């Protein structure tokens, strides 16, 4: 446990440069500055490590980095996505608070690999404590001549800045995030072109999640194979899981990929008050909900969770016990997507509100049995038809909640009240 | 319209972006100006920010109305932003919000009569393992209980 | 062209790799529904209406933003495509008011059209519909924002075409609202195009509001007559009245845009000031009479005052250059036939020995490909909006633009430099440019350049010109009455010649090019307008002239027209007291869209149009009136059945040019403060002056005599005073020794103070 991003978690002043360096931090970066590492080598190591993007989509990081036109002329950028806003997700906040230098080093390495001399870390607007932590760490790094122009006369340049958000979940979507750095509304861009070709300020850009970047230094200092071996087939390494909800000790756990769900549940102290597990959302609010039976047999890795019928997403495990009203939970989630839709494309702008209103009507006791089919119909019309994945994220819970807990909805409509609360 | 001190702060943000990309600083500029104006943005302040950053007023207005952190009507000196999303909800946020409303004698979305506190229900603040939680101004308060809320609110100055 | 093949609905078609699928389907006539896509705007891909099935793609793909590649297989009609299209349509309709019966867009609404094909019958949406409050965005555009489908075409139009972001999308999600920020309303000179791009009835024409349903109207192609472009448009009429004007596509001329001036000027046609009956003045009293009486009276007067006494040399013919080419030609032909050589259209030029003999040799579409432009003396954006639009496009591709103007004007693209230059310094700066260029080219300098100083401004412009591959020098209206006008024009000709630049003459207006082509200028040794006004004349034929707007010296004109023994025949489209004061006969003539005619634009395109409506009451097209007058005068060669026969007859005479080095005289004739005068954009002709909505806009209200503090002091003026009847505005954006008047009403320009 706690092998990579959380390596120093229990140490005194774990976020300081001193602590970070004492445990081998910046050794990879210093090697780069001395000219001892090549971009090709780094990409190979990352590919070998099996690291997949920790922001939700799970795209192999090494492969992503190899897509950048590193030899093209002109400015290129690396961008870190610390906009963390998916309900259930709160791991990047802790990385920023407790290990900011790993993010800095990871981004600097990325900058070197992709020949990008400028990086931005996009931190969500509410994360003021993490923001100040990260800024302090940046200051330390600049003072220690680890960042800047012609760093330590190495002819390597890397300037790193933070950009603060201002409250919008959609800015976690990578192209909305780029728009936001450009001082605009967070309206996702349609692709192609992809950011690797036309990204921030129109320049080639690579965007990775905070945890992805923070994992890189440790992988490179201990070797890709080391990381791969921690995990399982198709899911290299260890990963942070945020376990929240009806557990005794909710927390972030950095555990090997492939850890059985029931072990993770145990780490979180098990069910609170000895209640019975009812449902699990394994990867954040936009991943399909699973029933207890299915969840208890699943392993926490990309394939394991997919086999169970959901997705690993950002590793945000939401635990619900038998007292949970699924109608209410779905309504809350529907409200979230309704509130956070950017409004740009038709199905999401109009559809999220429609979904929410049907559910709200149900909760208020005015549901009709045909509303269930209507919900399924509307979510089906959003799915796949939008510019970005928020549409799918809004549609997915509706489909999976109704698939797994349909009787509860029928009951609610019939009696105007929840099945679980008598 | 924008104080010299605020301009200095805004300039520091402008410096982070390419020279011809001043408007990248608009999000922070709006926050800085909002902080100086009783936590509020008016059409005039938005225009002033736009002018300072050489961007069309409507473009700044788009930003000011897109993001949740900007206020367009009166808010309290302290803004309590109570998460009511899934993890917090599972941990009793709704009851605690009701408790807070009772205690302050205001509904969410409103300001206490003395203008001291306003409460807002917000979506996930990314502290789910500390649920239930709220944010007051810049700070997070986690693992809330009714007693803890009373204590925190009573200590606000 | 085609370098790859793709399959659309089972049919192989050629395409260019990387072009967007929708361009291919449009070209092939395959209909793909769309709302946000517009061929002249950037791609937003946000409405999702154009989703089609692309083989191999897990999700349906938007045709507007999917680049094609070799072998791609596309299905626009299969189950997957149709399901997506229907889904999007249903979403679009849930919050749409469906108030088609009271919507001005009804019958030409893209939403309505697509809904018929893709919508489902029963709305399953039982929640309350969204209602969006409207904002008043000015006199031209009516908003009904509840109907908005958030396609953002209007927003992109502002950003990309108008060059000013006025509309925006505020709020997010369902609360996304398309609105302007400024409460003064939309101000772009091209704003009306938003009405055309809006696919639904959210933005409609305010003057047209609730007038008619689109299908009730008859649409006639026509040509705009207010500038040098002659934008193509459709005049939409109902029961013989012009109800609305919309743009017509012509990439060569106006692409798909028209200026607000061209769109809304038709309103003037029905103004109560229209002149509707022929009238004659008998013993100082005006009498409305029949055409027959009026024409006979006119011919009799002409005979008795002029022709009978062989005094054709004391007859003058003057016309406004807004007249059609046929009108100008016929009037000239009558005058020539009766032996009169006193012909002119250059009414507002103070000194006709100091004219701008200067040709344009660049076409509109080439303008957007230039890499450098020098503007000399023009507020081009307001004077020639469509030409400015082409320049703006050039700047977006990286072209640099410099201006040499008497004051700072608002441009909708960044200028390289706006050199604010006093009227009396423009010639010397240009001489510096010429000298710098010739020096760089190692050419022998003409004598007049020997003592010219080359300053930094001149050097910069010269090096820009020399380093550019395709440049243009634009001479504007503010040079017309510059004391150094002909020197400036000649210098520019020389510069263009030596720097291999094109030239563009914007010192002229409307149909001036046609007036020059038909030779509506003094013939043989005939008098020019200023000479006529100072001479003892016996008669005038005046074509649509309003002296207080058209002449640089109102008093001289009135004085010349008024004497008892000077017989004046006026052909006018609007009533005017001053005209009534000096005329003996007033003949009511057709205005824009009421007559067939020809416009010669800056491309030299001869654009002929038919009448879209019949002129009201007794009003007749001027070309017919002139033809009948010729018949009554028993002149030969006027047997025209229609105006096209007139065009056929017009031989291509060319304007005599005076481009000689001798014209260049660098001892400036200026002294003291010079006045540069320009009509404000919405008062340049008589129809515009009567178009009420345009007059209410910000541009319509422009009325100021701008000067810098030093000039104000010299003239002893302060901010609330009037100068030549125009309110004084003191601003340091004006050059020294200059008053720049931009006026919307009669201005009597006196000699310099
Ligand atoms: C609606 C939406 C919200 C997202 N939010 C986040 C986020 O908060 N943090 C994040 O890292 N990625 C988020 N993503 C995923 C990003 O678009 C992107 O895939 C990711 O940052 C790439 O980094 P990775 O390859 O390291 O995972 C979001 C995607 C969507 C569609
Ligand atoms: S007003 Fe019209 S053009 Fe503008 S976004 Fe709405 S529907 Fe589109
Ligand atoms: S036309 Fe393609 S998404 Fe709107």
Give the SSE layout.
The complex is a heterotrimer of chains A (422), B (157) and C (753).
Chain A: H1 17-22, H2 27-33, H3 39-49, H4 61-66, E1 77-82, H5 91-98, H6 100-113, E2 118-123, H7 128-143, E3 159-164, H8 174-181, E4 205-209, H9 210-222, H10 224-230, E5 238-245, E6 251-256, E7 259-260, H11 261-267, E8 277-281, E9 290-291, H12 292-296, E10 299-300, H13 302-308, E11 316-321, H14 326-340, H15 346-363, H16 370-382, H17 390-415
Parallel strand pairs in A: 1-2, 1-4, 2-3, 5-11
Antiparallel strand pairs in A: 5-6, 7-10, 8-9, 8-11
Chain B: H1 4-14, H2 26-36, H3 43-52, H4 57-66, E1 78-83, H5 86-90, H6 93-104, E2 117-122, E3 134-136, E4 139-141, H7 146-154
Chain C: E1 4-8, E2 11-15, H1 21-28, E3 51-54, E4 61-62, E5 73-75, H2 79-94, H3 110-118, E6 141-143, H4 153-162, E7 167-170, E8 177-180, H5 193-197, E9 203-205, E10 218-223, E11 232-238, E12 241-247, H6 260-264, E13 279-282, E14 285-288, H7 291-305, E15 315-319, H8 325-337, E16 343-344, H9 364-367, E17 372-376, H10 380-383, H11 385-396, E18 400-405, E19 417-420, H12 426-440, H13 456-467, E20 471-476, H14 485-499, E21 502-506, H15 512-517, H16 529-534, E22 539-543, H17 547-550, H18 554-561, E23 567-572, H19 577-582, E24 585-588, E25 597-600, E26 606-609, H20 622-632, H21 643-649, E27 674-679, H22 686-689, H23 692-696, E28 704-707, H24 709-715, E29 722-723, E30 726-730, E31 738-743
Parallel strand pairs in C: 1-5, 15-16, 15-22, 17-18, 17-20, 18-19, 20-21, 22-23, 23-24, 27-31, 28-30
Antiparallel strand pairs in C: 1-2, 3-4, 3-5, 6-9, 7-8, 10-11, 11-12, 13-14, 13-24, 25-26, 28-31, 29-30
Residues 34-37, 45-50, 62, 64 of chain C line the site of FE2/S2 (inorganic) cluster.
């Amino acid at each position: 446990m706690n092998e990579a991003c959380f390596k120093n978690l229990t140490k005194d002043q774990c976020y300081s440069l001193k602590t970070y360096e004492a445990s081998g931090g910046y050794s990879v970066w210093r090697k780069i500055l001395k000219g001892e590492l090549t971009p090709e080598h780094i990409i190979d190591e990352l590919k070998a490590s099996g690291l997949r993007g920790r922001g939700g989509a799970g795209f192999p990081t090494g492969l992503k980095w190899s897509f950048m036109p590193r030899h093209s002329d002109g400015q290129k950028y690396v961008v870190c996505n610390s906009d963390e806003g998916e309900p259930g997700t709160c791991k990047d906040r802790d990385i920023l608070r407790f290990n900011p230098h790993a993010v800095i080093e990871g981004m600097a390495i990325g900058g070197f690999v992709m020949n990008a001399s400028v990086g931005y870390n996009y931190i969500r607007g509410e994360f003021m404590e993490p923001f100040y932590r990260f800024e302090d760490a940046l200051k330390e790094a600049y003072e220690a001549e680890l960042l800047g122009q012609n760093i330590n006369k190495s002819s390597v340049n890397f300037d790193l800045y933070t950009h603060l958000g201002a409250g919008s979940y959609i800015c976690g979507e990578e192209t909305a995030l780029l728009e936001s750095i450009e001082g605009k509304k967070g309206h996702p861009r349609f692709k192609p072109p992809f950011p690797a070709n036309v990204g921030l300020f129109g320049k080639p850009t690579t965007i990775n999640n905070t945890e992805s970047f923070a994992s890189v230094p440790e992988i490179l200092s201990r070797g890709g194979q080391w990381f791969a071996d921690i995990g399982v087939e198709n899911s290299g390494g260890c990963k942070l899981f945020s376990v929240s909800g009806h557990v005794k000790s909710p927390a972030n756990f950095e555990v090997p990929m492939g850890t059985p769900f029931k072990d993770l549940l145990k780490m979180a102290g098990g069910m609170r008050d000895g209640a019975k597990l009812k449902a699990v959302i394994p990867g954040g609010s936009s991943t399909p909900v699973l029933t207890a039976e299915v969840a208890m047999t699943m392993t926490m890795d990309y394939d394991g969770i997919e086999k169970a019928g959901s997705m690993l997403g950002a590793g945000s495990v939401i635990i619900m016990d038998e007292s949970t009203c699924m109608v209410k939970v779905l309504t809350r989630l529907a409200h979230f997507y309704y509130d956070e839709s950017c409004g740009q494309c038709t199905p999401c702008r109009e559809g999220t509100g429609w979904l929410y209103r049907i559910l709200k009507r149900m909760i208020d006791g005015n549901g009709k049995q045909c509303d269930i089919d209507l919900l399924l119909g509307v979510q089906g019309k959003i799915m796949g038809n939008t510019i970005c994945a928020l549409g799918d994220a809004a549609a997915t819970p509706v489909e999976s909640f109704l698939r797994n807990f349909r009787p509860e909805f029928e009951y609610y409509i019939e009696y105007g009240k929840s099945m679980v609360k008598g | 319209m924008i104080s010299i001190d605020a301009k200095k702060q805004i300039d520091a943000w402008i410096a982070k972006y390419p020279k011809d990309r001043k408007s990248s600083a608009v999000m922070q500029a709006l926050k800085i100006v909002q902080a100086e104006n009783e936590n509020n943005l008016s059409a005039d302040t938005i225009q002033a920010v736009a002018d300072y950053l050489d961007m069309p007023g409507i473009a700044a207005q788009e930003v000011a109305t897109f993001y949740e952190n900007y206020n367009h009507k009166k808010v309290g000196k302290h803004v309590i932003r109570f998460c009511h999303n899934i993890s917090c909800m599972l941990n009793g946020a709704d009851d605690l919000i009701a408790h807070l409303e009772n205690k302050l004698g205001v509904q969410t979305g409103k300001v206490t009569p003395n203008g001291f506190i306003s409460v807002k229900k917000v979506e996930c603040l990314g502290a789910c393992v500390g649920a239930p939680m709220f944010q007051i101004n810049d700070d997070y308060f986690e693992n809330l209980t009714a007693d803890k809320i009373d204590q925190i609110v009573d200590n606000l100055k | 062209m085609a370098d790859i093949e793709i399959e659309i609905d089972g049919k192989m078609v050629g395409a260019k790799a990387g072009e967007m699928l929708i361009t291919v389907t449009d070209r092939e006539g395959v209909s793909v529904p769309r709302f946000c896509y517009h061929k002249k705007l950037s791609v937003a891909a946000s409405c999702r209406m154009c989703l089609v099935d692309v083989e191999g793609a897990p999700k349906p793909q938007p045709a507007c933003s999917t680049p094609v590649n070799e072998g791609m297989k596309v299905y626009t009609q299969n189950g997957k495509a149709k399901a997506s299209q229907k889904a999007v349509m249903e979403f679009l309709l849930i919050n749409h008011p469906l108030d088609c019966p009271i919507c001005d867009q009804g019958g030409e609404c893209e939403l309505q059209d697509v809904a018929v094909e893709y919508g489902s019958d029963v709305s399953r949406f039982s929640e309350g519909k969204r209602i969006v409050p409207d904002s008043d965005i000015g006199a031209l555009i009516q908003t009904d924002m509840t109907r908005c489908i958030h396609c953002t075409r209007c927003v992109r139009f502002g950003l990309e075409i108008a060059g000013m972001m006025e509309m925006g999308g505020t709020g997010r999600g369902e609360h996304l609202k398309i609105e302007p920020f400024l409460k003064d309303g939309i101000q772009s000179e091209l704003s009306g195009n938003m009405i055309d791009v809006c696919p639904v009835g959210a933005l409609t024409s305010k003057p047209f509001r609730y007038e008619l349903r689109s299908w009730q109207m008859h649409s006639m192609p026509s040509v705009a007559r207010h500038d040098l472009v002659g934008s193509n448009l459709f005049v939409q009429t109902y029961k013989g009245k012009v109800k609305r004007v919309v743009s017509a596509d012509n990439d060569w001329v106006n692409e798909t845009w028209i200026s607000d001036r061209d769109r809304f000027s038709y309103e003037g046609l029905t103004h109560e000031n229209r002149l509707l009956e022929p009238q004659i003045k008998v013993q100082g009293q005006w009498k409305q009479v029949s055409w027959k009486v009026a024409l006979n009276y006119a011919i009799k007067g002409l005979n008795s005052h002029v022709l009978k006494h062989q005094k054709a040399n004391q007859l003058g013919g003057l016309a406004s250059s807004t007249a059609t080419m046929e009108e100008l030609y016929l009037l000239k032909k009558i005058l020539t036939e009766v032996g009169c050589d006193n012909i002119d259209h250059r009414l507002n030029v103070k000194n006709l020995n100091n004219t701008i003999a200067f040709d344009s040799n660049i076409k509109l579409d080439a303008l957007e490909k230039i890499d450098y432009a020098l503007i000399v003396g023009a507020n081009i954006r307001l004077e020639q909006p469509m030409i400015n639009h082409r320049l703006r496009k050039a700047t977006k591709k990286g072209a640099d633009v410099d201006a040499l103007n008497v004051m700072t004007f608002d441009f909708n693209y960044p200028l390289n430099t706006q050199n604010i230059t006093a009227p009396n310094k423009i010639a010397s700066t240009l001489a510096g440019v010429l000298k710098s260029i010739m020096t760089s080219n190692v050419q022998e300098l003409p004598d007049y350049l020997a003592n010219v100083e080359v300053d930094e401004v001149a050097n910069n412009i010269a090096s820009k010109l020399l380093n550019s591959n395709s440049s243009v020098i634009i001479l504007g209206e503010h040079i017309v009455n510059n004391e150094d006008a002909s020197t400036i024009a000649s210098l520019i000709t020389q510069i263009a010649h030596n720097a291999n630049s094109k030239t563009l003459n914007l010192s002229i207006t409307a149909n001036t090019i046609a007036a020059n082509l038909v030779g509506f200028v003094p013939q043989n040794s005939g008098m020019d307008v200023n000479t006529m006004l100072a001479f003892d004349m016996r008669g005038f034929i005046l074509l649509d002239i309003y002296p207080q707007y058209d002449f640089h010296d109102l008093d001289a004109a009135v004085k010349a027209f008024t004497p008892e023994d000077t017989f004046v025949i006026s052909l006018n489209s609007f009533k005017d007291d001053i005209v009534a004061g000096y005329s003996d006969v007033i003949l009511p003539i057709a205005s824009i869209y009421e007559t067939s005619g020809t416009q010669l634009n800056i491309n030299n395109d001869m654009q002929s149009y038919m009448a879209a409506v019949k002129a009201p009451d007794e009003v007749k097209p001027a070309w017919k009136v002139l033809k009948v007058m010729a018949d009554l005068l028993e002149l030969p060669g006027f047997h025209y059945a229609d105006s096209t026969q007139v065009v056929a007859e017009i031989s291509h005479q060319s304007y005599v040019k005076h481009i000689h080095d001798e014209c260049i005289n660098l001892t400036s004739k200026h002294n003291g403060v010079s006045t540069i005068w320009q009509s404000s954009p919405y008062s340049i002709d008589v129809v515009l002056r009567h178009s009420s909505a345009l007059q209410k806009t910000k541009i319509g209200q422009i009325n100021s005599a701008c000067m810098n503090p030093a000039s104000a002091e010299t003239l002893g003026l302060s901010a609330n005073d009037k100068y030549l009847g125009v309110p004084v505005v003191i601003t340091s954006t004006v050059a020294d020794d200059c008053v720049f008047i931009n006026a919307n009403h009669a201005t009597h320009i006196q000699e310099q103070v």
